[in-house]
Design goal:
It contains three helices and nine strands; from the N terminus they run βαββββαββββα. With 114 residues, it is of the alpha+beta class.
Length: 114
């Protein structure tokens, strides 16, 4: 479905390991918003939803809602750290454009994403 770079995998495992709450894995999806129409959502997942698609990437359980799958299919998630910030970075071949912050994107039609 999508890939995690080594840096993203290490960061995710670190966040899961040091979470103060019980964590099942990561929840990755797409929501409305941002300056380009859609925004990436990534967070620690503590509860499985009945409709979740669950895959395992590099030993990490990834929970995704079915509606997000066409938007994130083929995407690569990286993790970048600088002196000022650290964040997940999304390289999405389905995005027709993205904003400067890299957190939101646009897709002309869903059929283009498949």
């Amino acid at each position: 479905m999508f890939k995690l770079t080594e840096a993203a995998s290490k960061a995710a495992k670190r966040f899961i390991r040091f979470s103060e709450e019980p964590v099942l894995g990561l929840r990755i999806g797409v929501g409305g918003g941002g300056c380009s129409g859609f925004k990436y959502e990534i967070e620690l997942c503590s509860k499985e939803e009945p409709e979740d698609e669950i895959i395992t990437v590099d030993g990490i359980k990834i929970y995704t809602d079915p509606a997000s799958i066409p938007y994130i299919k083929g995407m690569t998630i990286d993790f970048k750290e600088t002196m000022l910030e650290s964040n997940f970075v999304f390289d999405n071949p389905n995005a027709s454009s993205s904003c400067g912050c890299g957190s939101s994107f646009e897709i002309h039609t869903i059929s283009e994403a498949n």
